[in-house]
Amino acid sequence: MWQTLKEEMKEAARSLGIDAIGVASPDPFVTLKQRLVRHRELGYESGFEEPDLERRTNPSLLFDKPQSIIAIAVAYPSKLNDPPKSEPGARRGIMSRSAWGEDYHKVLRDRLSRLEAWLRDRMPDLRAESMVDTGELSDRAVAERAGIGWSAKNCSIISPSLGSWMYLGEMITNLPLPPDEPVTDGCGTCTKCIDACPTGAIVAPGQLNAQRCISFVTQTKGMVSDELMRKIGNRLYGCDTCQIVCPENRGKNWTHQPEFEPDPELAKPLLVPLLDMGNKEFKSRYGHTSSAWRGRKPIQRNAVIALGNFKEASAVPDLIRVLTEDPRPVLRGTAAWSLGRIGGDLALEALKRASQSEENEEANTAIRNAISALLEQLSTGND
């Protein structure tokens, strides 16, 4: 009976907007817990995770007498059609693919709701608890156990058919559905993701130092180190490098989920207009995307960083305005860094004036560092 229900569920998945579905046992994730303990000891956590390792690895602490966990995957696009060009005087940033289209948390909760309704029609006594990304369980650990794909060296789950361009979610249930078999690891000897990581955040196969991961750094709200600002490039939110270089993703671009269809002007926006974007405009433009959860400050800070990395001289007046008028010390300090990267007499004079009036210690340190870097650059001719 339960095997038949599982087979019917898999057959119905596509009609529910689900691209892959599998079943995992609700047993504790013992190996995962060991990895997480070590991860914490090494200081590799991002701080965004559920802090209780028992709740992250023991489904029975989240749900009374769980019998199975259903894992789902929904695929998303990897390419922009006719992307706008980033060029001198009109530089653009880039949002990671996870921020294209509608917020995937909302979309996957909708898919899980459809699945729950489908199951309840057949099993009225169903009890279920769904979660996407922000839940206690590790979406990737559940997906791996449920046979959605294997856990790759870049810490993504790779499906043999979908690659890693997919969002994951799960539903704990009281239905004793038979579990699926995990997929055999397909990474082999390939290390392209490790080699391509801009900051060396993938410290070992399947081990990520989140503190150095650009995807994490772009979502923080504080000052960023000089090293990491240079590595961010023009990324405004997230980083896709380790997935882009993955051979398993070659040629894979999923466009059949209409909610994830990207707006090129939002996915690759002009940088300078972002600097003056107020909360109301930010919510109007980006409130429906997954990038909105941290507010506009990180994206505006990253836009400032990107202008510095582009060494966009035409943006100097705009960056001076941020340096002297923005009420947020992090933005002022970051603008100082970018002006130091771009250089020129106008930037140097603005930095000197700002150093006399800046009252925030962190921002003032950034201003003094920028002045020093600029003076050294002028004296040696080196960047």
Brief overview:
Helices cover 42% and strands 10% of the residues. It contains 17 helices and ten strands.
Structural write-up:
It is a single chain. It contains 17 helices and 10 strands. The longest helix is centred in the C-terminal third of the chain and has 20 residues. α14 runs antiparallel to α15, α14 packs parallel to α16 and α16 packs antiparallel against α17. With 383 residues, the protein is of the alpha+beta class. The N and C termini lie far apart (69 Å). The chain has a domain of 265 residues. The radius of gyration is 23 Å and the shape is elongated. The model has no long low-confidence stretch (mean pLDDT 96). The strands form 4 sheets. It has a 4-stranded antiparallel beta sheet with strand order 1-2-7-4, sandwiched between helices. Helices cover 42% and strands 10% of the residues.
